[in-house]
Amino acid sequence: MSNKPFFKKPLYFLIPVIAISSILGLLLLSTIKLEGSIEKKIFEISTSDVFTIMNNSATAIQSLLKESTNYPEDIKKNRLLQHKIEENLKVLITPNIKYAYLLYRDERGVFRFLADASKQEEKALIDQKFDVESPEWLSLYGEKKALMIQHTLLHQLSMSYLIPIMYHDKIELILAIDFSIQKIEEINHIIHLMQNGILAVMIVVLIILLFTIIQSIRFRAVKKTAFIDKLTNVYNRNYLQKYEDFINLNDFILATLDIDYFKKVNDTYGHDVGDKILKQVANTLLLTIRNKDDIIIRYGGEEFLILIKTQRDGHLNALNVIERIFRNIQEHPFAISNNETINITVSIGVNLVPHKSRTFSEAFKLADIALYNAKNKGRNTIELYDENENIHNTFLSLNEIKEAIEEHRILCYYQKIVDTQTQELSYYEALLRIIDKNGTIITPDKILPTIKGTFILRNITKEVLGICYEQLIKNPLMSINVNLNPHDIIDETILTLLKNYASEPTIAPRLGLEIVESEDIAHRDDAKNNLLELKSLGYKIFIDDFGSGYSNFIYLTEIKTDYIKIDGTIIQKILEDKISFLLVKNIVTFAKEAHIKVVAEYVSNEQIYDKIKSLGIEYCQGVFFSTASALQNHDEDKLS
Amino acid sequence: MRVFILLLTLLAFSSAENYTFLVQPYSKEMELEAKIIAEIATSSVREKIELFIPHMSEMEEKIYSRYFKLSSKCETANFVFVNKAVENEILCDNTNRLFFTNNYRKLLSDEKYYGALFWNKSRPNIVFIKKRLEKRAIELPKTFDQFIENF
Fold first, then answer.
1. Residue-wise pLDDT tens digits, A203-215
2. Is the ipTM of this complex over 0.85?
3. Which residue in the list A302, A383, A463, A618 is annotated as catalytic?
C-alpha cells in the first residue's frame, strides 16, 4: 500500500495527545493549588470558632484583672481569682483541645503556670515551671499578637495557640491552648477524603483518556481496513467518498484507467483468473507509482482512479508516471495459470487540469470523459482531456438534463427492426434524444456518461417508457423496444410502472424490453425474478449487445430471454474478421437450439445483410434499412 | 532557656527518622526519656553510672541498657530513677547515690530526689532543686541553669 498523507502524518495523532496531556497537566496543577486553598480554608473553618472563644476568654480574664497592676502576683495571691480564671479556662476544654492554661514569664525568662484547666492528676501547680518545646514561644514577645505553633515532634499535640494578655503594652500573661492530634487528624481526614475524591476523578479522567486513545487507534485501524480493497490492496471507493473533499486538486493530475476487454477475460478464463489479473494490474500500478506521493483507488470492477502528484516544474513527471503505468501493463505478461500468460492493455483518460474544476467529482468526470474518448478511439491508448475538443463534444451537465426532463425536452427517435427474410418492419427500437435549449438534438453518448449511476438515469428511463406507452396507445399496430439498464430491472418504481402498463391488454406484447447483458442480472436473484415476472405479464425480453461483454449462455436460459441482439461491433466486422463470423455463427446455432430469436444490429450494407440472411438470423437493424428518426405522420398512419 | 530548647530540638531532630510513634509509641517516648536521663546523669555524676530503676520493665531494660550499665539492686547503683508510683515503697538510702524521679509532686515532697524529668502538657520538663544540688555538691553545666529552681 502506498503511504498517504491522510493516514501517515503523526501530527494528527500527536496534537490531540499533547493537547489532552496539557489539559490534564493543567487540571493536576490547578487541583494541587485548589487542594492547598481548601486545606487552608478547612483549617480556618475548623479553628475559627475556637480562636474566637479563646479571645473572649482572654478578654474575660483581662476584665477579671482590671483592678490589678501586677497580673501574675495578684493571681498568685488571690485563690478566688485563680479559681475564676480556671473556671473560665475549663470552658475551652473539648475533645479536640487537650490543655488550656495561663502562663507568665518570670524575670529569668522562665515560663510558669498561673492557672491550668487540666484534671487534677495532670494539673500544674501555681508557679510551676513550664519548659516550652519551641523557640517560637519567645517570638510572641516581639510580635505581641496571637501566635499559632505547629508541633512536628510532639506526638500527642498537633498545635498550640497562644494569646498574649497585655498590660500597658507589655505582655503580662499568655493564654495557651494545645490542640490534640485528634483535631488535626479530623482535618487531615477531610483533606484525605477530598484528595481521594480528586485522585479518583483524575484516575477516571485518565482512564477515559486512555480509553479514548485506544479506541481512536482501533478506530483508525478499522477505518484503514475499510478503505482498502481486499482483492487488489489499493484504496477502494469508500476512501474516495471519505476524502475526495480533502484532496487538493492543485497537487494532483487525475487519471482514470480501465482494463480493455476485461469482460472477455472473465468470460474466457473465468472470474478467478479475472481476479488474478486485477491483482496483478493493481500490483503493477503500485510498483510504478511513487509511493509517498501518488494514490491508486479502485472505484469500479476493472476501473482505477490514479492521482499523480504534480511537481513544481509542471506535469512532465506526472505524465511520465502515467506513461510508465501504460507501458508496464502493456509489456507485462499476466499469469493466468502456472505456465500460461496473456497480454493486457489498458485505456487511460487523463485530466491534466483538475484545479480548473470546482469539485473533485467534476475533475473526475473530465478524466472519465477522456477515458471514454480513449475507448471510442479503439482502446489501448492514453487520452488527455482536451477542453477545446470537448467544447464540440461536451456532455450535457446534470442540471441541463434535469432541466430537459422538467421542460419535457426528452423525446424518442425510432429505428426499424425488420424481418430478415421479408425486410418488412417488425419492431421499432426507441432511442433516447434530448432537445437542448438551442433546438439541437443531443444523442445518448452525450447524455449517459453524465447520469451513469445517478437517479437521473432512472428518471430518464421512466420518461422514455412514458413516451413509448403513449405511442403504443396512439398506434395500436406499432411494437416498440425500449432500452433498460440492469439497475432499472430492480427498481421498484419502474417495475410498478411496467406492471401498470401491462394492465392494458395490448401493451405488454408490443413493448419489448432491451436489457444490456450484465453480470448484475446473472448474479442477482431479484433481477432474474423480476425479469421472469415481466415476461409473465407479456413483455418480450431482449438481451442487448450480446457478445460485447458478459456473454454467458447459461444465464440466457435462466432468464428465458425471447431475443438476443448481437453486439453491433461484431456484426460490423463479420465480413472481414473470421472470429467475429464464427462468434455470430455459434450464437445463432445456440439460439436456434434454445428457441431464442436473434437480431443483428449495425447492418449497414447489403453484403452484411446477405451474410446475416445466410446465417438464418431472424431480424435485422441498421442504416441499410433505416436510420433513427422521429416518427413521421405517414408512419403513424400506417400503424394506427 | 534558648540553649536548652535548641538542645532538646537538636536531640529530637537527630533521631527524627526514628519517630514512628504510631508503630511503637511507648518505646519512642521512652527512648527520648532515656536520652535525657543519660544527659542529666552524666552531667551529675563523675564516675561511671550504674542505673537502678525500681520495677524495671523489659522494654525499659532494653532501652536504658543502651545508655547505662544497669544495676539490679538499689544498693549497688549510683543513680536511681524512680519512674513508677508505688505506695510506701522502701528503697535504699540516698547516701552515695542520686535519686531522680519522673514526678514533680514527688520531687517537691521527698528530699531524697534532687531533680525530676516529667511530662507536662505532653512536653518533657526538667526540674532541679538548687538546695538539693548544693547539698549533694552537684555542679551542673551552665546549660542546665534554666531548669534549676531556687526553692
1. 888 888 888 888 8
2. no
3. A302
